[in-house]
Every structure is written in structure tokens, then in C-alpha cells.
């Protein structure tokens, strides 16, 4: 029986880097009998590297904008392409299954004759919350405070790893959970997943797997160590509050705005930013109170090791969010930069809206 490996995310576990790697190396993988399908990834102006559109189509999701087209494209591609293993990747799958309790996507792929295996990466919840917050604010999807965000999401279903494992067991689904930890960061998500996928794939022997990993390791893009700055995040948050005052704007309008902020800051040499830090002792303690006992049970059941043995002991850092710890020098830079950044962002937002509205007007 052919196998389907579904990479479900989670969010903020290197999914975009992995999807880009699979996309760029899809031809080489296919020569090894592994299909990373194009279906559902080429529906917009710019090809996507993940299968979110496919997932929404195959599960008849109410948010699906493309009808049956992605699903039919997948079935045609499967029929026309010689392969033994199918790999599908989209963080949205984890939300469907573990957030909404909708397991239609793995059921759909099983109906096509695949033995389905789900691969999910997990990381410590306090660390995850900080990463999710910075991403959401940088995308200008929200201007909420860190405290409000942490209160809302720290205990969410998407952070309950033991419950996720138990949900797969109840459904009779084969699942593998992998740690997004320091060892993975050293190796890179791309090679970590490739090794795991090849072991699950099961056809290549150890030498064949090693040769393919060695070949593709030379094709991993250079890793850029980018961190979010405290002033940078405060600027994004202030503007997000303004542009979302009447409700969250569509992501198609806001997704390019962070580049404007980044560009303005790169041209501003007279300020010094700090790495944004909210992994405080209080947040770590709150995560431990909510998830610690279940984390330990999960790690022993999944990996046969203790949670701290896998992830290490968290190291708290002082808070430097300007709303929490308003350092005078950072505040002065923020106040000086805000008018300039705001003007450029609003100009780009107006252009973005015009670009989106123009095709609609032509129709």
C-alpha cells in the first residue's frame, strides 16, 4: 500500500522553511518515488509552497474559495504520477484536527488508498506563545497587548499535546510527534523532517536514505538568524491598532506591510533595537501550571524520555516589551520613528487595496 505522510505543523515550528525546501526539491524527491504535489499550490498570482487550498477543498471547508478544483487536481496528479509516497504539508491541518476536531483530511487521503501517517512538531508552550505573538503582530493582524494574547492562547487546545496524541489514538490514526528543540535547530527542520519521512516511507534501505539526505543537505538554503526587535514590534503593534480599529483587515491587505516597516528601519541608523523578550519567569510558571503534568506524560509516552531531557530547562529573560518595561531610550526611538513608519505603511496599504480592487473592477 502506498503511504501518505501528512505534515501538520504546528504553527511556529519551522513549517514555512520546510515547505519551501520540499517545493524546491520536489523533482529530486519524485525520482526517489516521493510526490510533493503541485495540486492546490498554484492558484494565485504566486505559487504557494504548502497545501492549505487543497486541505480546504478536500474537506469542503466553509472558507474554501476554490471549489473542487484543488481536490480534482490532486486526484489527477496522483493518477498521472508514478510514486510510492505522498507528502502533504499545511499548518491548517493541525487546526482542523486538534482545534476543531475535524479529521476529514486524513480520512480523505485514506479513501484514496494511502496508509496515512501524521507528523506534528511540538515545542514548549511558553516559547510558542511568544513566537506566535511576534508573528501575529508583525503581520499586523492584531494590535493586542502581549498579556491579552497570552491569556487567550496559552491554555488553548493547540498547546495540549497529550490530548492531541490521545485524539489520534481514538481515531485509529498513526501519528508521530517530533520535538522542535535545540537539536532540531542545529540540524534544521528540513533535514530533520526528511530523515523522519524517509524512515516512515520505509522503502529505501539505510544506505539509500543516507545518500538522499546527504544529497539534499547541500540544497538547504542558508539559515538566516532573524529576530524581532522591541522597537520594531512596538511600531507594528501601534499601526495594527490603527488599521484594524474597525475589525481585522483581510490578510491579503496586511501581509506586505511588515516589509515596509523593516525597510524604513534598515534606513534608520540612529537607533539601537533590542531583541524582543517576553519569555519571563511568570509566563514559564503559568505554562508549567497549565501543561507541565501533561507534558511529562506526553514525553514519556511518545519519546520514552522526560520533557526536560528533550527540551532542556527553560531560561527566563527580563521583559522588554515597551508596554511592560518602557525603557526611556527605546521609547524615544519608537516615538521618533512612528510618524515616518506610519506614513509609509498607510501609503503602501492604500496601494495594496488598489491592486486588489483593480481586478474586481475589471470583472
What does this structure look like?
The protein has two domains: 184 residues, Rossmann fold (3-Layer(aba) Sandwich); 82 residues, no CATH class. It contains 18 helices and five strands. Strands 2-3-1-4-5 form a five-stranded parallel β-sheet, with helices on both faces. It is globular and about 65 Å long. The N and C termini lie far apart (47 Å). The relative contact order is 0.12.
Task: Indicate how many domains the architecture comprises.
Answer: 2
Distance between the termini: 47 Å
Please state how the strands of the largest beta sheet are arranged side by side: 2-3-1-4-5
Question: What is the residue-mean pLDDT, rounded to a whole number?
Answer: 93
N-to-C SSE string, H for helix and E for strand: EHHEHHEHHEHHHEHHHHHHHHH
Unreliable stretches, pLDDT < 50, 5 or more residues? none
How is the main sheet built? Answer: 5 strands, parallel
Based on Cα principal axes, name the global outline: globular
* CATH architectural group of the largest domain: 3-Layer(aba) Sandwich
At the fold tier of CATH, the topology name of the largest domain is Rossmann fold
Count of individual beta strands: 5
Radius of gyration: 22 Å
Question: What proportion of the residues is helical, as a percent range?
Answer: 55-70%
Overview features:
363 residues; alpha/beta; Rossmann fold
Quick recap of the structure?
This protein is α/β, with parallel strands linked by helices and 363 residues long. It has helices at 15-24, 26-31, 52-58, 69-80, 92-99, 104-111, 125-138, 146-153, 161-171, 182-187, 189-201, 206-217, 230-243, 251-254, 257-266, 281-303, 307-311, 328-362; strands spanning 3-7, 34-35, 85-89, 115-122, 174-179. It is globular.
